[in-house]
Amino acid sequence: MASNSTVRILDGNTFVVSEDTGDIEATPSEPTGLFSLDMRFLSKWVLTVNGERLNALSYDDLQYYEARFFLVPGMATHYIDAKLSIIRERAVGGSFRESLTILNHDEKAVDLEIRMDAGADFADLFQVKDEILNKKGETYAEAESDKLRLGYRRGNFRRETVISASRPARYDRNGFAWTLHLEPNEQWDAAIDVQTYAVGPGGRDLRMGLRAHGTERLALQHDLERWVAKAPKVNSEHGQVSSTYRRSLIDLAALRFSPLSLGGQTLPAAGLPWFMTMFGRDSILTCLQVLPFAPEMSKTTLRILAALQGTRFDDFRDEDPGRILHEMRYGETAAFEEQPHSPYYGSVDATPLFIVLLDEYEKWSGDVPLVMELERECRAALKWIDDYADLVGNGYIWYERRNNDTGLENQCWKDSWDSLSYSDGTLPPFPRATCEVQGYAYDAKMRAARLAREFWGDPGYADQLEREAADLKERFNRDWWVADGGYYALGLDPNGRQCDVLSSNIGHLLWSGIVQEDRAAQIAEHLVGPRLFSGWGVRTLAEGEVRYNPIGYHNGTIWPFDNSFIAWGLRRYGFAEEAATIASGILDAARYFDGRLPEAFGGYQRELTKFPVEYPTACSPQAWSTGAPLLLIRTMLGLEPHEGHLAVDPRLPLGMGRIEVLDIPGRWGRVDAFARGRLELEHQPTS
């Protein structure tokens, strides 16, 4: 994994990860380089002056799509009396462009050899992630008089990186160079274009490279300005809330991904570096988080997921009729079916969550045409829940991969290999069922019943769905309740034995509404109790469980997205103080990450570490972590669509002060919401 000193810029599916000098020297296992369409188009990009590497004085990541590096020749020392300054400025947008500026501060003229070593291994992102670079095709490098062409071909699958410069350069197979003579105080500038090309089956050109630099950069700048201006404004006496909100808005803009089939429409990609593509679960949950702030993302996400809904039985892709995809990839391993992600359907929660998002989106937007348009897909998703997901025949959603070579073992959101266990630490057999997915199924049926009754003109179907949901709730509260612990089991094995560990998943049950009212208080008490709540947030697995590890991926870390839905669930059952406690912890943690919450951080007790400890390979930015502060703001203000209007029922944490959210969009037009919390003395505003 790249170190924390790396600089990252991105624009949807295209991103560049480099050292703080701007250089790139990737190894097969490091996600550094220029990536697009799930492949690495540059693995080497090293600038030297007279054969010397450069030392970074500072760098600025100006916007999510651009960065600037200030450099001098030679190695770092306590003091550098440099006679040269080098500025590298780059922007990404489809591909990327880099501008070089060299300034001679000497009193005499200098002769310089400026060289950029360039190379591309065309590693598939899966190969980098798995630390296996096993290329079956042919790489090539062709130096022409005005460009360097780096390429990879394997049958009719071809990728190319084409490098050219605004000033004439000498190109060879390993890079390009200029010989300069600079007078005292003279400045030299050059611009380098790096364009990516992808040719698919039949020679079809899937993607062209970067537009003209000025046009692209200006377009990105104007797009970001429009994006921020269109979103509601958040003002707060607790300044961190406003800055975290703005950071989240900008990161959400950066993560917008336009699949090849969408013609410019965008949905949220899951996260950098590993998941810069379309997901089912991740994209849906992010859309739910950001509905009050960026509702248009939901419409795009619902449409593209509906268009790619499963239609057949395909064991390689774990596809069934009606199933919503898990992940879509465009790289070499997917193209040659070495991975099933073209698309892959191995998740059990995306399908019920698809229905949940459609209903929630309609409540906010009043977009009845979309509800009518997606009726067939909703009915197919509900049929999948009943007919194809119940692998055991007892009315629950189960999973077991049919692709035993490259399919996912665990197909819930906690998808690491050891995330589901009994209290003795052993792992259950397959098929497996997790508790939160049953809650999603209950919620999906209740929401689909509303859609059927109000829009599809099928009250009989609505009645049927409500009966099925009531039956599911009754059975679930019987079979999943851990009586001696006072909580719901994380999972069941095919014999009905409970995976009786205490986990954060119980908070999702509150959000879905499947929890019996007389048990909700016990669940709330666990969620903010010392075994689950660290002071920063709710741990994925409770302290004291055999597999608990504060830096275990799904066995003790804190996931901001997880906490945002837990807080929302607590509000649903009336536990506003507990929801505010969780919101306060997560928003406090954001301060230590400059407002950008990572995928996960350590579950250590707050008093022990004094600051949140980042999980070592966490994605950042990541979509549903970016969405977490937005959902927490919604939860603290109690923003809920109600009978065509926006209801506001605020409950702020101690010390939060006043929060206002202005111009909240919805079927009601645009409205404002205000709330005032109880200020602690140190948070009192000064005159």
Structural account:
The protein is 30% helix and 24% strand. It has 17 helices and 30 strands. Strands 3, 6, 7, 8, 9, 10, 11, 12, 13, 14, 15, 16, 17 and 18 form a 14-stranded antiparallel β-sheet that branches. Strands 1-2-4-5 form a four-stranded antiparallel β-sheet, with no helix packed on it. A hairpin with a 4-residue loop joins β23 and β24.
Largest sheet: 14 strands, antiparallel
Q: Taking all residues together, what is the mean pLDDT?
A: 91
Helix content: 25-40%
Distance between the termini: 47 Å
Class per helix and strand makeup: alpha+beta
* Rg, Cα atoms, Å: 26 Å
Estimate what percentage of residues fall within beta strands.
Answer: 15-25%
Number of helices: 17
- Assign an overall shape: globular
Q: Care to count the β-strands?
A: 30
Domain Mannosylglycerate hydrolase MGH1-like glycoside hydrolase: 351-596
Protein name: Glycogen debranching N-terminal domain-containing protein
Domain Putative glycogen debranching enzyme N-terminal: 10-191
InterPro entries: 6-hairpin_glycosidase_sf, 6hp_glycosidase-like_sf, GDE_N_bis, MGH1-like_GH
Task: Describe the protein's topology.
Elements (H helix, E strand, L loop, with lengths): L6 E5 L2 E5 L5 E2 L7 E4 L2 E4 L1 E6 L2 E12 L2 E8 L10 E10 L1 E10 L5 E10 L5 H5 L8 E6 L4 E7 L2 E9 L4 E3 L2 E8 L4 E13 L5 E3 L5 H18 L2 E4 L2 H16 L1 E2 L9 E2 L12 H10 L5 H12 L24 H4 L14 H16 L2 H6 L1 H14 L44 E2 H20 L4 H21 L1 E2 L4 E2 L2 E2 L5 E2 L5 H8 L7 H8 L32 H13 L3 H16 L14 H4 L13 H15 L2 E3 L2 E3 L10 E9 L2 E8 L11
Antiparallel strand pairs: 1-2, 2-4, 3-6, 4-5, 6-7, 6-11, 7-8, 8-9, 9-10, 10-17, 11-16, 12-13, 13-14, 14-17, 15-16, 17-18, 19-29, 20-21, 22-25, 23-24, 25-26, 27-28, 29-30
Helix pairs in contact: 3-17, 4-5, 4-7, 4-17, 5-7, 7-9, 7-10, 10-11, 10-12, 12-14, 14-15, 14-17, 15-17
Protein name: Glycogen debranching N-terminal domain-containing protein
Pfam family, one: MGH1-like_GH
InterPro entries: 6-hairpin_glycosidase_sf, 6hp_glycosidase-like_sf, GDE_N_bis, MGH1-like_GH
